[in-house]
Amino acid sequence: MKRKMADRVQQLKPSATLAINAKAKSLRAQGVDVINLSAGEPDFDTPEHIKAAAIEAIKEGFTRYTPVAGIPELREAICAQIKRDYGLTYAPEETVVSCGAKQALFNLAQALFDPGDEVLVLAPYWVSYPPIVELAGAKPVIVPSSLEKDFEPALEALAEAITAKTKGIILNSPSNPTGQIYSSEFLAGVAELCQKNDLWVISDDIYDKLRFDGRGPENILSVAPALRDQTIMVNGVSKTYAMTGWRIGWAVGPKEVISAVARIQGQSTSNATSIAQKAALAALTGPQDCVSEMCVAFKRRAELLYEKLSQIPGLKLPKPRGTFYAFVDFSAYYGRRTPAGQEIKDSLSMGDYLLEEARVATVPGVAFGEDRALRISFANADEEIIKGVTRIGEALAKLT
Ligand code: PMP
Ligand code: GLU
Prior knowledge:
The protein is an alpha/beta fold. It has 14 helices and twelve strands. The chain has two domains: 12-41 and 290-397, Alpha-Beta Complex (Aspartate Aminotransferase, domain 1); 49-285, Aspartate Aminotransferase, domain 2. The strands form three sheets. It has a seven-stranded mixed sheet with strand order 2-8-7-6-5-3-4, with helices on both faces. β6 (200-204), α9 and β7 form a beta-alpha-beta unit. The relative contact order is 0.16. Its cofactor is pyridoxal 5'-phosphate. One of its GO terms (molecular function) is transaminase activity.
């Protein structure tokens, strides 16, 4: 048949995180008492001064196309933020503003990877990395890690995964879904391998300010500045400023890569929304207390969630050190049966059971490449977290 859709969509799955969050929100809207611990977004509202900047932009008629790579003030503000956070100097031409960090990652994969290339993705990984790599025709090569090692892969495993076809690696620390932070030693080891094998490094720093150890952002360039010519940093306002719906993210790196990303974007989506860019500018240049306040709240909730989950027999998790996610091993309950006689086989059936029986939405770990675990978000009020975990404990106790 001629009228068939392209091969690239045949295996393409919807984003599990977006799908489950939407399902939980819709159940709630129908009046079902669902506790949504699946959300991959801060529960806080966007700070007022940021909203005000967007309203002002509308009133001023700032509603037309902007340069594809973003308004100059925002690109400068991104450089200033990188200087503040990482001590690195970049020029505005080395930045490109996209429709969320997700589009920045998508564009980068299109710009850097060819069919046949292999790209290292460290498991557990954010759901969208493998499809983003695959949509560029390249092959994600998954490098495993274990809960016992706080989900930091062994450098030997990484070295073994590198072949003549390996073209790049994607790093994300603090990590979605594990809530863990790679050690400086690990980053230095990765840097050495990347340098030796001449790999592109995509450093997804979207949670870099949501860390609970009081330290500032750290990525691979912090420990190995020599990697500058082969590294592209990705970040955005979604998580740091509670701005997921505004869709502003960016990539920062070597000028020729950034210019290629801008060409891709210029032939696909053009500039990110003009008024959202003004809002992002206010976020980066305005008062930063909102960031530390949200981080303090997430830290408190991480401790609360960790304490409550640790009281449930059989569950295992490393204490979250950043982000707003805990990654919890439920596998001690696999093989048991629900009151209706269904077997809990994997993270999907456990996720379904928790939604049906406990009315708690979580994200099955299989979406992140780790079927023993489920992701539990603590971007939620304390009472909801307590209620949610209590219900999870009660539902687990009913398994036989
Ligand atoms: N990277 C990671 C690890 C994420 O969790 C997210 C959240 N969706 C993104 C990138 C994309 O963020 P956004 O497109 O909202 O900027
Ligand atoms: N990053 C968030 C999550 O992992 C938001 C949803 C998405 O874009 O995948 O849940």
